[in-house]
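Subject: DUF3108 domain-containing protein

B.,
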Amino acid sequence: MKYFLMLFCGLTIAGGSFAQSDFCGITNTSFNAGESLTLKVFYNLGSMFVGAGEATFNCKLEKYNGKDAYHVIGEGRTYRTYDWFFKVRDKYESYIDTATMLPIRFIRNVNEGGYKIYNNVGFNRETGQATSTNGTFKVPNCIQDVISAIYYARNIDFSKHKPGDKIPFTMFLDDEVYEIYIRYVGKENVDTRYGTFRAIKFKPLLIKGTIFQGGEQMTVWVSDDGNKIPLRIDSPISVGSIKVDMINYANLRHPLSALVKKR
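Prediction pasted inline below.
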């Protein structure tokens, strides 16, 4: 259950270097303030998947240093019946400039199995710096944090890409700059615990670590409509595998027209 919310976004640290100019200052057309999403995490135990926890994402419109900003709060927690094994209480916050879709501030406050991290990061575009709880770091202009990257990715126009294309991002996490990408796979219908959807499918490149296997083994599906909300994530992990399904939503910007049949 480590990196509980990063699992949802399907964007994890990857190798490589990519030009960022085509992906800077994207316009938001996919979500509104007031949107709420809930996803359920299932862990594979042999021949069955057991519900282990939930992740929620809520978006509000606020003022931050005089700028209009989306204040997105992502929270992940294991169910109490799972806490004895590995208790997770994670909270991530991002203030995203509504004009550029780039982060102004990012706050990470996590407790995963007793392992605690707190980091408060402010981004200064004029100086090209990120100042965190631990110091000041040089960053490129189009830097994203782990939450803003999710909402940024929801505004990609996948019609401009063909299957196999890599779509790059630069992300700041744990006081380091990472070049990451997702590989666009194509479109297909996906069956989830909420229902059957027309979906856009992609794979992030994962670096092998203590939880995830390396390579493009994680698969992510988002709704093939104006919202591009996450529907399902599948991934093997070091022991077993996990699934993450969208189970509830509210106040979407567009009708959920990708839904073919509700369960």
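The CA atoms of residues 69 and 75 lie 19 Å apart.

T.
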